[in-house]
Amino acid sequence: MVSVLGEGDKAPAFELESDGGDRFSLSEALKNGKALVLYFYPKDSTPGCTREAQGFTEAKRKLSAAGATVAGVSKDSIKSHCGFRDKYALNFPLLSDPELKVHRAYGAYGEKTMYGKKVLGTIRSTFLIAPDGRIARAWRSVKVDGHVDAVLEAIREPKKAK
Description:
The protein is an alpha+beta fold. Helix content is 30%, strand content 28%.
């Protein structure tokens, strides 16, 4: 069964290898008091994944000004991530999850329909994780076009009184 994280849920802790040659953990990412945009994508250097990564790269300054950092996660190897990063001048960490443990913890891996067939694979998903470690927003089965703008808008939204 796929985990379904919702707004207000505690984000699953994780630590993964990064294209920067170090380990990247949720707890370290949130220590700076900024939110984390954690997005899961299927494969390095494919058309949709490239457009999404370029969108986050172009928006990095705006995202930072709004109080967030970004990290991308796929099952691809660090070597693949480094080639992807270098080819497209990506400016945020790419994390390798070859065993899909973090994908599964966030519900970003499971059955999906591709070209009319049911297949198991990465479900393009994005999670806005607040500095307190809770899910502020979750986007599932993301359509690339317009997505980065939607994430930026969500970060900029005034917090709703509860």
